[in-house]
Every structure is written in C-alpha cells, then in structure tokens.
Amino acid sequence: MTRLRGESTLPWMCIGDFNEILRPEEQFGPNERDSAQIDAFREAVDICGLADLDYRGLDWTWEKKVSGGYFCRVRLDRALGTAEWPALFPFASVEHLTTAKSDHFPILLQTDFVDSSVRAKQKQFPYECMWERDPSFGDVVAEAWNTSGKANTVAALSDKLAFVAGTLRKWGRTTFGAIRTEQRSLRTKLAELRALPDHGGPSPEEERVEARMSELCLCEEIMWRQRARIQWLAEGDNNTKFFHRKASARKARNRICELQRADGTVCVDDQEMPSMTTSFYINLYASENTIYIDEVLSHIPPRVDAAMNDMLNAQYTNAEILLRLPPQPSSLLRASLVSKRWRGLVKRRRFLRLFRARHGSLPLLGVFPGEVDMSHPFFTPSLDPPDRVPAARFPVPLAPLAFPLVLDCRHGLALVLNRRVSQLLVWDPVTGDKRPVDLPPAFKGRQVMLHNGLVLCAGAATAAAEGRLHGSCNSSPFKVVLLASGRTHERSFSVCVYSSQTGAWGDVISAEFQPAAMEPLYTASELYMYLPSTLVGSSIYWLLRGNGDTIVEFDMGSRSLAVIEMPLDLYDHDKSSSFMTMPAQDGGLGLILVNDFYAKLWKRGADCNGVAIWVPGITIQLGKLLSLNAEHNRGPLSLLGFAEDSNAFVVGASRIGIFVVYLNPLRFKKIYERRDLCIFHPSESFCVAGI
C-alpha cells in the first residue's frame, strides 16, 4: 500500500482481507494478536492517509473454533479510503454479510444511494409451473439459452437471463393462451360432437378434446395453487376451487355487497350504492339548516384581515413546499430527484438560508472526540440510513502532528485547538471551511492555563434574547470565547471574546473570587479536563473539575464573570459519578449527573425568598433503558457529552459501548461497541447529502 500511495495522488480506496486489525478491540475471544503487527499495520494505514470506512453488520469478518470449544472472531476484512474518496462517493457504505461455508465473511461496498423505502414498480417475470407439463418446454429453454450467446460478465449474464425470460413469456402466451377461454371453447366443441345424429361412442376427435380439457384442468389447478402459495396439498388433488378462493380472499373481503338505507331497508343494487355513498358524506359534512347566520357572523370580530386572506388563498410556491421538509440530510436530496426545477431550487444559497432559519433545531449528525485517536474514525455518525453521514465525510481538520484538541461544537461549527503552535481553528465540517484564529496575547505563555473555549454564531445571543431558535451559521459571522486562569493565581479567571466581523480579540475581562467560593481545580483527571460548555440565552457556563468542582458563568450582555456553587447533595462518594452542565428543558441552567447506571437531572431555580438553589428533577434508570444485564456490568457508566439542540447526552463504558440517550422522547442509539473513553462533542448541523 505504501508503494502504491507514492505512485499517485488521486483519491483511492482499498477493500479486502488485510489479515490484521487496527486495534485490539477488533478481536473477540482467545489467542491475542501480536501488538507489534497491529502497530505496523496502523502505521502503514497512517502513512497512506487512509481511514476506516463505516460499516453495518457484525463486528467481525472471520471466525474459527479453537481449542477449548471457544470461538475466535476477528475483523480482518475492511474497506479503507483516503479523505478525498468519500467526497466522490458521499453515499458509500460497507456491509458485513454472512456465509454458511467459509470462515471469512464477505463484505459488500455500495457506492450509490440506495433508498430501501422506494421500490421500482417493475413487473416481475411470471414463471408458471404449469409450463413444465408441456413436452417442448425443455427445448424452448435450451434454444433460448443457446441463441443469446455466451455470458462472460455479470451484466451479460443478466441480459442472457432476461432474453430467456422474454422468450418463455411469449411461448407461454402462444402455447397455453387463456386457459378459461380455451376451456369454454372445448366444452362447446365437445357438446357439439356428442350431439351429432350418428354419435355412437367416443370418436378420435372427441377423445382428443377430452384429453385436452383434462390437461387444461390440471394446468389451472397448478396455476391457482402457485398463486395461493399453499404448499401442503400435493399436486393432483383436483381442488381448484379451494386454491381460487384462497387467492381471491382479500378481494372478497374488500368488496361491498350491500348498504343500509336511512329507512332501514337494504340496497344491493350496484347502480344505487355509489349514489348512496356520495349522499351520505355530503349530508355528513354539510351544515344543517340555520337562520340569521349572517347576523350572527357580523358580531364576531374577524381574525384574518384582507392581506392574510390573500396570502392564504395564494398558490403555494415550490420553495414554500420544500421549506416544510424535515431537516434530515436525505430530505432535500430526495426532493432534488423529483424534477430539474426542484433540483436547481435546493442548491440555491438563499433557499438553504431560509431552510436553516425555518428549522432552528439542528439534527444530531454524530460526535467528534475531544482527543483525536487515529485508531478510530474521527467522526462517528448517529443517524440511520439514508440520513446516515459516512464517518469519512468529516476527516480530521488538522494534521496529527498538530495534536488537535476539539474544544466545542455549536451552530454547525467546531472549535479545534492546535496545541503545536497554540492556535485555534474554526471549522465548518459540512462545507469544509477553515478559519485560523491566533490566541490572544494575554492567553499565551506557560503562566496561563487555558480551561476551555466556545464558538457560536454572532447572532445566537440576539436570537435567544428574542425567543427565537438559532440554526447553523454556515458562512455567517461567528464569535470565539476563551476562559483561562493563571497557574500561580488559580482563583483569578479571565475571558476574552473574538469576533470574525472585526477580525480581532476584545478586551480581557478578569475577576477574582474569594477562597471560600472555590477550591483548587488542577487535580482533575485527564478525561474531564475540557468538558463541553453550555450556552443558555446570552450566558456561557463552564464546569471545571477538580478537588472543588466549580461552574464559571460569563454573561456576554453585561460582560461579567461569576461563580455558581454546586448542589450540596450532588455527590455520592460510594459510587463513581460524572456530571455536566446543560440547558434546562424549560429554560435556565441545568445539571445532569450519572451515578453507576442512573442519570439524574437538576435545575437552577429559586426558593420562596428568591435565593438561587438547585432543584432535583427526574431520575433515569440507564441500566434498564439500555438493557444492561449483570453480564454487561463491567464498570460504571460515565457521562461523556451533551447535545443542546437535540436534548441528548452521550454516556458509556469502555467494555459496554458508547450510547446517545435522547431525553424527549426517551430513547437511545448505540454508536460504539467498544472504545476507550473520552469527551465527545456532538455535531448538530444541516448536512444536505449529495447536494
């Protein structure tokens, strides 16, 4: 692979049996593999710039029974592609199939868009079992097969089969024709032969007609048995009426034979019943006799003025119809396949802006890890086909040597820290736009600790203040907000705001808090160093973990900093717990706590004296929701991320899997079988697939 990579710069993809795995989690069972070989294969994949394409099906492609009666299952077969390859095939998908004989499972790569919900209305080839009773049937098939030539490819074989099917269809119509029509004709002819004045016994012609009628009766029986799909009666039972009734049962059930008139009598006339049905629904929805209706209506003030009435009576435009489609990635793609006019409309920037403005709540496409792990895809999709975005669609925006760290995902944008050069990158995964932003001078140097950052559309705070939902801000002005503190003065916090409209950082806003309000923060585990931030209205909240957990609030309107105390009874020291800030469902600041296999919600409220307090909310039994039995209890669940627009959180354990749990309505989606834990940033955006 490394040699082929040096010969061309074109996008490429490799698929097949690599006889090696990328990470230990891809082997299940005994006989652990050599870690040196795994590292060598992973290094070759990195050198070639390849990424593992997403797949459906089982997690392994090879299995074998080993000593002791155990099975060793390994994912040896896979599909790898460069970062540019998914752009050429945005709907590419890999499926692990199953087989009964081979120890290797086949893998299927599909590059075209396949919509399983829409099926072509193509008439299938009707093979009739009664054809086999004709002695010339075999000769007809052989002649058609030999006439169509040799088939050296799959396409040629398909054409060859289609030719044979067409020949059989024509031969069947010519040889068998209409069975019932021929039966009636033969009955008439047999009656005429038997009615001859000199009839003294079965003549040769009469015997021929009788033999043909018997053959047609048998063919009719086979035909109706085939259509009825009743397999438990043997051929020759001569029960055509039973098969006919079975095949026509649905038609008989749906037929209306009689209707009851208003006077109680029954109508069976086919000419009268349609008019009865029409009259019934006209009377049902027509108004009864009313008097002085105009005078009554004159006292009701109109709620619809003339302008509103004209707008309601106006004909719908194509744009108004398409704007009401759901915001899933496949919605506009399906609409674009209807006509050329719709295809051109959904590509216009103005229409896409209106579409985003109408659907303020963004769909959850998937998650990005905070720490980039080259052994896993950078993007993990969370939607099902056909809305599922391939994992390779959103590659890592920075080189691995930049040690990228994802700080935030919001409004369709991602904020990535380049730790190699101390520079930020504002990245739009859907469009691929990248905007580098240097750190403010006051936040550089070893004496400053960068706690976290947030990216948001410049109009998000205004939209929240006006009570409007805010969608993704592709190609719109944005802001970046950073939180930092001094390493030697850990109770002093500073915030700085960057605006893409001015292209500069604003003044540094600092505040120092009393020791009673805070405890030292710098003993937090590496997993919780950069927790996702929370945006509620015009306020930003950061949860800082350490010996004393602290919530720092920054009000963008008043440009002020504050510290919020945690709930006193939040902690359960006997259980492993993790928690994050979140927007409360009815507004305000909330908290979500995960203890072992339970999740509990909190909300910031006020008591009867107006003093701010934490109010406990509902408790979710994650073990029951995720169907985790005693066999799965191999460690407590950890809270790993929160999606604000989708009102969902990411939770998991390394040996159980990673899940996205939606709060309204309560449901879940498993996105990882096994992987090391890290903070995940949900990506919520409008992704118009294939457009």
What's the β-strand tally? 35
What's the structural domain tally? 4
Q: What's the rounded overall pLDDT mean?
A: 80
Radius of gyration: 36 Å
Low-confidence stretches: 114-121, 230-238, 515-527
Strand fraction equals 25-35%
DSSP summary: helix tally: 18
The CATH class assignment of the largest domain is: Mainly Beta
CATH topology title of the largest domain: Neuraminidase
**Terminal Cα span:** 32 Å
The CATH architecture of the largest domain: 6 Propeller
- The secondary structure category is alpha+beta
Helix content: 25-40%
Which sheet architecture does the biggest sheet show?
Answer: 5 strands, antiparallel
Give the overall shape: extended
Please give a quick description of this structure:
With 691 residues, the protein is of the alpha+beta class. It is extended.
